[in-house]
Amino acid sequence: MTVHALDLYMLQVKNLSCERANRVLFRNLSFQVNRGVALRIAGLNGAGKTTLLRILAGLYQEFEGDVKWSLENYPLYIGHRFGVKALMSARENLSWAATINGQEVKLTEIDYALCQVSLEGYADVLCGAMSEGQRGRVGLARLFLLDNPVWILDEPFNAIDSAGIQCVVERIEKHLSSDGILVFSSHLDIPLKNVQELELH
Amino acid sequence: MTVHALDLYMLQVKNLSCERANRVLFRNLSFQVNRGVALRIAGLNGAGKTTLLRILAGLYQEFEGDVKWSLENYPLYIGHRFGVKALMSARENLSWAATINGQEVKLTEIDYALCQVSLEGYADVLCGAMSEGQRGRVGLARLFLLDNPVWILDEPFNAIDSAGIQCVVERIEKHLSSDGILVFSSHLDIPLKNVQELELH
Amino acid sequence: MLETIRRDLLLHFRKPADILNPLAFFVLIISLFPFGVGPSASILSEISAGVIWVAALLTTLFSIDMMFKSDYEDGTLEQIVLGKESLLLVVYGKVFAQWLVGGLMITLMSPLFGMMFYVNNDGIFATALALMLATPTMTLLGSIGAALTLGLNKGGVLISILVLPLYLPVLILGVAMIDSAIVGDDYVGHVFWLAAILVVSTGFAPLATELGIRISLSE
Amino acid sequence: MLETIRRDLLLHFRKPADILNPLAFFVLIISLFPFGVGPSASILSEISAGVIWVAALLTTLFSIDMMFKSDYEDGTLEQIVLGKESLLLVVYGKVFAQWLVGGLMITLMSPLFGMMFYVNNDGIFATALALMLATPTMTLLGSIGAALTLGLNKGGVLISILVLPLYLPVLILGVAMIDSAIVGDDYVGHVFWLAAILVVSTGFAPLATELGIRISLSE
Amino acid sequence: MWSLFHKLGSPRPFYEISDRLLPILGCLTVIFLSVGTIWALGFAPPDYQQGESVRIMYVHVPSAIVAQSSYMIMAIAGAVFLIWRIKIADIALQCAAPIGASLTLLALATGAIWGKPTWGAWWVWDARLTSTLILFFLFIGVIVLRSAKEGSEAVGRATATLAVVGLVNLPVIKFSVDWWFTLHQSSSFSLTEKPSMPVEMWLPLVVMVAGFYLFFFYVWIFSVRTEILKREYRSQWVRFIHDV
Ligand code: HEM
Ligand SMILES: Nc1ncnc2c1ncn2[C@@H]1O[C@H](COP(=O)(O)OP(=O)(O)OP(=O)(O)O)[C@@H](O)[C@H]1O
Ligand SMILES: Nc1ncnc2c1ncn2[C@@H]1O[C@H](COP(=O)(O)OP(=O)(O)OP(=O)(O)O)[C@@H](O)[C@H]1O
Ligand SMILES: [Mg+2]
Ligand SMILES: [Mg+2]
Question: Where is the Cytochrome c assembly protein domain positioned along the sequence (chain E) (predicted)?
Answer without folding.
Answer: 28-184
